[in-house]
Specification:
homodimer; DNA-binding; 242 residues
DNA sequence: GACACATTATGACTTAGATCAAATCGTTTC
DNA sequence: GAAACGATTTGATCTAAGTCATAATGTGTC
């Protein structure tokens, strides 16, 4: 069977190379340790703006951790309509929805040149058998994705357009903030059309509501640069909704 | 550490008592074997119509497999609005979205008197450490839920009301069929309002579209009894959409 | 079985967001 | 740097679905 030390070594490599904070940090590596390990060579790779990381129907062999950059995942339909299922940034993991099928069920496209780490799923599974915490964390990550998707379902099913945009901006803000970037000011990596597709709105509606928020002093918009001027007002807009 | 035989025994008990087809069958138990084991006593339990299996905020200790009956899961908001996140029947597993939080993030209510099996998550985790296939299957189930949620997001974000109802009816039909019940005729366990909440529509809209489908000969509706008269037409209604 | 309450159906009207259209602004290409 | 294309903004209309109202029907309770 597996040699535990050998496996542990691989684990370190896999983890370190991916900045898989969610998978790795709870195991006991400190940020510095991780940084050191980070300098090792490995299966990280650049994906240029507009390039596909994977496509619907392609074989599922790996999940992907984003080291840096920005992705969208989407499903494309016969009639040409695209639905954006998510936006993903540093530390996020993509491809988990493919495990059950053995092929990918969405496209993943880089919205800016990005650095990703490919984690062969089979290897991860092996490792997680001897590293209970890794195993737990994988569950936790998948579970979190399910819970988050339920929030999006709520948004799509129950919120008005303004509420969706407010929730979207606050979510982005919170995620940038959690990664050490400014919570109040950030660059949108996606077009108005992609935002609309994600939120179940048309691009014109997105544009109009950005303008409206700006008029009301809630945000400042300069093309792709968004500044949250009154995050509390945005939160109030959400009212009782999560 | 763990005694493997002891664990294996527990596995058999857990599996058998739950009819956890998805978790257990691939391991190599045949249906008959499962049936036999099924007769053992264990942590199965009845949940009466209207009773909660778990509530938002309650401690997460177990996931639940449905042996028989029908549930809805929903999130309730400060302002009293409810959003139904799913309908669940025999063989489905509920509570997976709670793993990451250690408390439940939705309510689960029985829509008819149902029999469920409680699976302590800790025990399942232990077992899955020594039963790789169990472990894999858990991943697969969670992954499938993520992929399915993405389909719902597409539905809520991109489909018109009629398309949503058609997709809803076809999905129910397919699931009943997969469990050995009629694909063409089934009893709705939920109200029009709950259907509407799930699909992001108002109950009046649901009612109107049922009437319209009936006029057009696509379905026959008698209160809660639905008969699909022309499933192909319903599929055509979905057009290019999944 | 009668009362109270929940669910469903249907009509009349309103509205949020879609659609269509046009102008502006930005960015990439050669 | 001019041409060509894509993204964004804004306006004018349209429409699918929501809201409000009422009646009918169904269901549970004592």
């Amino acid at each position: 069977m597996l040699n535990q030390n050998n496996m542990l070594n691989q684990l370190k490599v896999v983890c370190s190379l991916c900045s898989l904070r969610e998978l790795c940090l709870p195991i006991g590596f400190g940020p510095e340790e991780l940084q050191q390990l980070d300098t090792l060579a490995g299966s990280k790779r650049l994906v240029k703006r507009g390039e596909y990381l994977f496509r619907t129907g392609s074989d599922f062999t790996s999940i992907y951790a984003i080291r840096g950059g920005f992705f969208k995942t989407s499903v494309l339909h016969d009639d040409g309509r695209e639905h954006v299922t998510g936006f993903h940034m540093m530390g996020d993991i993509m491809g988990l929805d493919a495990i059950s099928n053995e092929y990918h069920v969405c496209d993943a496209v880089a919205l800016e040149t990005s650095e990703i780490c490919e984690i062969p799923f089979e290897k991860l599974s092996e490792l997680s058998m001897i590293m209970p915490v890794l195993h737990q964390n994988l569950h936790r990550i998948m579970s979190r994705e399910i819970a988050f998707d339920h929030e999006i379902m709520l948004m799509l099913g129950k919120m008005r357009a303004e509420e969706r945009l407010a929730a979207f901006l606050l979510n982005l803000s919170q995620r940038f903030s959690a990664r050490g970037y400014s919570a109040a000011s950030f660059q949108l990596r996606m077009t108005r059309e992609e935002i609309g597709s994600y939120l179940g709105l048309k691009l014109e509606t997105v544009s109009r509501i950005f303008s409206k928020f700006q008029e009301e002093g809630l945000i400042a918009v300069q093309k792709k640069l968004i500044e949250l001027k009154d995050a509390n007002a945005l939160k109030r807009l959400l009212g009782g909704l999560a």
